From TrEMBL:
GO terms for molecular function: ATP binding; kinase activity; magnesium ion binding; potassium ion binding; pyruvate kinase activity. It comes from the Eukaryota. It is an enzyme of class 2 (transferase). This is Pyruvate kinase. Belongs to the pyruvate kinase family. Its cofactor is K(+). The keyword Transmembrane does not apply. Residues 36-325 form the Pyruvate kinase barrel domain. Keywords: ATP-binding, Glycolysis, Kinase, Magnesium, Metal-binding, Nucleotide-binding, Pyruvate, Transferase. The keyword Mitochondrion does not apply.
Length: 450
């Protein structure tokens, strides 16, 4: 019995290119993969969180930390970054390593609409079906939300929400219909579906065309904060068109360390302009917390098909077109044909990995670099394991050997498995132009503790 279990552990992981709906509960019943391909993003919204709590999250394997920027002071933001640094230092001391790379992310406010605070410091209030609720943008009502009065931070409420509009609060926890416009600050709505209202919930109106500008002064302040404190990624929701991304890039200018710009597709307008948005940004987020409640009801039922459609558009852009990236095509093809389980890339800037990542190879990509900033950025990519190599020797084989030993110890590779390396063929090569197939010649070393 023990021998059969041991043989099962040595079987290589089967990689199938099939459509997987992660919203189905039965996906949890399938066998787990040997290594994780998707990065884990954790949003830190509580300013009272301790460095110990963050350290436990880091040890569990999170790759990206997202900060809530729109509803916190600059002091809270700086303290949160300081706690993250302390947690990373604690992990380094605990595990005896020099660096613990963790990517950071901020989210722009744009035209995201939120409700206000509940009155009397309440945690929640019940909204009854069939009741009439007043929606207001009067700032005097910000902290006075109750079962018949709800504040939202949209000063264009009169022009943005016509009569008959379906309104969703907290992802369809509460559904309203606009029945009357009182004045330029207030409208009346009838409750179609009752539920629990909490503090600062998402407020979505189906099928409207917002009249507010996409990028505000507050958003540009967050961009400046990201540049000043070397934030690795900026998320832009409700982007609507490529001009929004161009405006942000123009504001960033010719900075050396530029953060990645990810766009959240939240409305029907975003889907209409998906082609130009995808070409302009660094990544796309299929915003399921906004899109089902902003688009028409018919599109809401076709979200899995829309997600595949967006994925196909992402695959069509940024394909290799020159000699340097022709080696990337060969690397992806060789990895698939040889059934290699790992691709090792020694990299300086990460550009080679980015080009290979667009080819969607079936193997895990392990990058080896000495730059902490590059490793943090590579943590944002799916199916990529960036490693820190402290001593950058000229012998590339040493760096590849380091990556393979790490993969064997983690169980990603086993003895006599195949892996592929994509590297420079000579010291004077300006790009990675050599692809080689290797066989693992080492096995996992078992440690004996007393």
């Amino acid at each position: 019995m023990a021998n059969s279990e041991k043989q099962d552990e040595k079987k290589p992981e089967t990689i199938e290119f099939e459509d997987i709906d992660i919203s189905r509960p039965d996906i949890l019943e399938k066998p787990v993969n040997r290594f994780r391909r998707c990065p884990i993003i954790v949003t830190l919204a509580d300013p009272q969180i301790t460095p110990v709590d963050i350290q436990q999250m880091l040890e569990c394997g999170i790759n990206i930390v997202k900060f809530k920027m729109s509803y916190s002071s600059k002091g809270d933001k700086l303290r949160m970054i300081g706690k993250l640094d302390k947690a990373a230092d604690a992990c380094c001391r605990k595990f005896g390593i020099s660096e613990w790379p963790i990517a950071t992310c901020v989210e722009l406010k744009t035209i995201v609409v939120k409700t206000g605070l509940l009155e009397n410091n309440a945690d929640q209030v019940k909204i009854t079906k069939g009741s009439v609720v007043k929606i207001t943008c009067n700032m005097d009502e910000y902290n006075k939300c109750n079962d018949h009065n709800i504040f939202i931070d949209n000063p264009y409420i009169e022009s943005d929400i016509p009569i008959g509009t379906e309104i969703s609060i907290a992802s369809d926890e509460i559904i309203l219909h606009c029945i009357e416009k009182i004045d330029f600050e207030n409208i009346n709505c009838i409750v179609i579906k009752g539920g629990i209202l909490k503090n600062v919930c998402n407020f979505c109106a189906r099928g409207i065309s917002p009249t507010r500008p996409n990028i505000t002064k507050k958003d540009l302040e967050i961009v400046n904060f990201a540049l000043a404190y070397q934030i690795d990624m900026i998320v832009v929701n409700y982007v609507r068109n490529a001009e929004t991304i161009k405006e942000i890039k123009k504001h960033i200018g010719n900075k050396i360390a530029k953060p990645l710009i990810f766009c959240g597709l939240c409305t029907g307008k975003d889907l209409e302009n998906a082609d130009e948005i995808i070409k302009e940004c660094d990544g796309v987020i299929f915003a399921r917390d906004f899109l089902p409640y902003e688009t028409s009801a018919s599109l809401k039922l076709r979200l899995p098909q829309i997600q595949k459609w967006i994925s196909s558009k992402c695959l069509q852009v940024k394909m290799p077109i020159n000699a340097a990236e022709a080696a990337v095509i060969s690397c992806a093809m060789v990895a698939n044909l040889s059934k290699a389980r790992v691709i090792v890339i020694p990299t300086v800037s990460g550009k080679t990995m980015k080009a290979l990542h667009w080819m969607r190879p079936s193997a895990l990509i392990i990058t080896v670099s000495t730059k902490l900033s590059i490793i943090r950025l590579l943590h944002t990519y799916r199916g990529v394991m960036p490693l820190m190599y402290k001593d950058w020797y000229e012998a590339i084989e040493d760096r590849v050997k380091y990556a393979i030993e790490y993969a064997v110890q983690r169980g990603w590779l086993q003895y006599r498995d195949y892996y592929v390396t994509l590297q420079r063929g000579a010291d004077n090569s300006s790009f990675c132009d050599m692809v080689r197939v290797w066989e693992v010649s080492i096995s996992k070393k078992h440690l004996v503790e007393c």
